[in-house]
Amino acid sequence: MSAAASLLLASLLSLAAAGPAFHTFIVQESHSSTPQGFTKVGPADDATTLNLRIALASSNFAGLEKALYDVSTPSSSSYGNHLSKDEVNAFLAPTAEATAAVQAWLDSHGLSATKSSSAGDWLSLSVPVSKANQMFAAQYETFEHNASGKTVARTLSYSLPAEVADHIAAVHPATTFNNPAGSLKPVLSIPKAPSSPTANLSSDATPSSCATSITPACLQSLYGIPTTPATESSNSIVVSGFIEQFANKADLTSFLKKFRTDISSSTTFALQTLDGGSNPQSASQAGVEANLDIQYTVGVATGVPVVFVSVGEDFNDGDLEGFLDIVNFLSAEDQVPQVMTTSYGENETDMSKALAFKLCEAYAAFGARGTSVLFASGDGGVEGGQAQTCSVYQAAFPSGCPFLTSVGSVHGISPETGSTFSSGGFSNYWGVADYQSSAVSAFLTAQGSTNKGLFNASGRGYPDISAQGENVQIFSGGRSGGVDGTSCSSPIFASVIGLINDRLVAAGNSPLGFLNPWLYANPSMLNDVTTGSNPGCGAKGFTARAGWDPVTGLGTPNFAKMLTAAGL
């Protein structure tokens, strides 16, 4: 072989070893200008580390969605036959082709990633800004959040090589500009500060006192919730904890001594942690939100094991990681909890559609395993998760995801009335879900032209149901007082589901799992709320009316009727 031929062969071998060239890039997501609320400061430092999350496209999400509805729809022959972890992961896992293509792309940059979900559809890796700019044909810059002064590294556009574009569903951080001072941080309800006890904080609350002060006894009276202790240790409720909100055991003891004198005041909860989470017990570190969530699960779902999952701050800036990490953490377990309640969130526009869709997939997978996923709907009325300045109605996140149950707020007892702050409306990301299409259609017909043009009339409607959410009595830091918000409502409804699941498991049946098809198939098992509205954005908002509405959903719990609808 000649020297020239040898050189050519060596060159070809070198090119083959180098793998794909990845020269052709396709834009994935972009902004035409800096998002509202942020100011561009300048290029991000090349050496700044980005902790990347890369979501791979699932091999068969359509199959998972079908399986979810099959096991969650009462009329289905597969109702209650929830999937195993391996079965769910088979739907979520990327194809071998996708894995190979993405691996080749990472290899071309000298990188390796770590799987951060049991299905392998999420990867984690850390790279400097200079490398991220190269990988995504991007220009990461520093942006200042005007309200807080905090800065984040983001890009107004990112692209992917043609060879991997179809295999990667989303990248973070990239074009998602959530509030760095409040992403995942604004508690959906903004509770009142606990104050000195008032005269109506009696442990034997009567319907008249419940009109102004909600306690476990009020809920037992209003909704027929039993005090009989649950018996099944395999049935549990998970309470999500974020932003260094800690659940205080001494406050729980005080709460039980005052409001649940019929059970032991030493009744407590288990703890799991991730992302550097903890749960210190000093009174000064007691979290109003965490205490609320724990006290209205332990104190209402009598005898149902409650687990507080404290998610720490060892993740990237932005709320994707907290929400994502907890569901991936729990989904990795062989036995998932039967209920998860979360009282945190944001506005739908704060997260890119690609990221929101991929996170919503994780909730679908969790539901297919047999977990009822409940989220507080938010406290901004038609302004979204939190109050904001707007000219058209905003949607809350993740309430728009059709694979979870969104819980709104009511107050009063005769009748119950939708709370003005109760977030509700229609998603701009997801279309109306099949299980609610007739209910939403009936509402839109009844509403007529009111609010026309201010919302997406073809979107997924929320909340799905509601529960009491005003002047709910708690203990925090050794003091008692009332709090308001849909974050009261979610743990209350979660407790009802936890108690029904206990009866189901005791009878040898499956837990309820994903609730929505069952809820919309049995609206008469709920107390329809027909008064109240959620104004905002300079308009009247929506008005509660007979049937489903985007203020109170289908209504509030009626335990006896729900038991019957569950076949008990």
UniProtKB/TrEMBL annotation:
Per the entry, the cofactor note is: Binds 1 Ca(2+) ion per subunit.
Q: What InterPro entries does this protein's entry cite?
A: Peptidase_S8/S53_dom_sf, S53_propep, Sedolisin_dom, Tripeptidyl-peptidase_I
Q: Peptidase S53 domain: which residues?
A: 213-568
Question: Would the keyword Transit peptide turn up in this protein's UniProt record?
Answer: no
Tagged with keyword Calcium: yes
Q: Which cofactor does it need?
A: Ca(2+)
- Localization of this protein: Secreted, Extracellular space
One matching Pfam family: Pro-kuma_activ
First and last residue of the signal peptide: 1-18
**Listed GO MF terms:** metal ion binding; serine-type endopeptidase activity; tripeptidyl-peptidase activity
Amino-acid positions noted as binding Ca(2+) in the UniProt annotation, renumbered to this chain = 528-529, 547, 549
Q: Assign the protein's first listed, main location to one coarse class.
A: secreted
- Give the record's GO CC terms: extracellular region
Biological process (GO), any one: proteolysis
Which keywords does the record carry? Calcium, Hydrolase, Metal-binding, Protease, Serine protease, Signal, Zymogen
Q: Which residues form the active site?
A: 289, 293, 487
Annotated protein name in UniProt: Family S53 protease
**What species was this sequence derived from?**
Favolaschia claudopus
